């Protein structure tokens, strides 16, 4: 997970077609990013993970929207190296950890932060970040949790315009960037624009 801490950006991809996985991964890498989270919301998701790992073995590939134990097992079998969920389900978290797959559960309250931390999850997804209070909410969490080693990946309302505000917070490990692999750009196969957006955010993240 150190690569996430170094790059500070995790692009979120919802891929309808397995054939788009490798070109997307290539476009992200061309922009300086060797991380991708493929959400398990489509029938093509598992094959997308396989295709990316086969084409780019060194790329860090995660599986997002893991809501059940079965999804965790299938994502792990497909080659996912870490898992992510929008919420905090202890059964799902434990299933991932039992497989040796690092897991980033979603949290929305201090109580969930405590419960996730107790299971050994020090990297947490704050979702939906903007609705919860965004930067102000994260600053409030810094007081009770800043010294514990817990770090957050805010997602939901995070974009190129406010990314710098989030990245400036020490308690933020990285931002979730759904705009980097926008469904419209993928559908149009506009890989050049994805590379441009990736380069832009990588440069910004390096300054924070």
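Q: What amino acid sequence fits the structure above?
A:
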């Amino acid at each position: 997970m150190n690569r996430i801490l170094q790059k500070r950006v995790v692009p979120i991809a919802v891929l309808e077609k397995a054939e788009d996985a490798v070109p997307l991964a290539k476009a992200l890498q061309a922009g300086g990013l060797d991380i991708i989270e493929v959400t398990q919301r489509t029938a093509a998701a598992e094959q997308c993970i396989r295709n990316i790992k086969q084409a780019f073995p060194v790329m860090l590939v995660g599986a997002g929207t893991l809501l059940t134990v079965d999804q965790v097992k299938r994502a792990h079998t497909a080659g996912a190296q870490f898992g992510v969920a929008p919420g905090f389900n202890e059964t799902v978290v434990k299933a991932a950890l039992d497989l040796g797959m690092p897991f980033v559960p979603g949290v929305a309250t201090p109580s969930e932060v405590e419960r996730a931390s107790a299971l050994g999850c020090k990297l947490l997804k704050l979702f939906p970040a903007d609705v919860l209070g965004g930067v102000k909410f994260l600053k409030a969490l810094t007081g009770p949790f800043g010294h514990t080693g817990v770090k957050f990946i805010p997602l939901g309302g995070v974009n190129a315009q406010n990314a710098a505000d989030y990245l400036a917070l020490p308690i933020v490990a990285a931002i979730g960037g759904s705009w980097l692999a926008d469904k419209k750009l993928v559908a149009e196969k506009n890989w050049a624009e994805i590379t441009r957006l990736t380069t832009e955010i990588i440069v910004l993240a390096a300054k924070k």
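Q: And what stands out in the fold?
A: Residues 75 and 156 are 23 Å apart (CA to CA).
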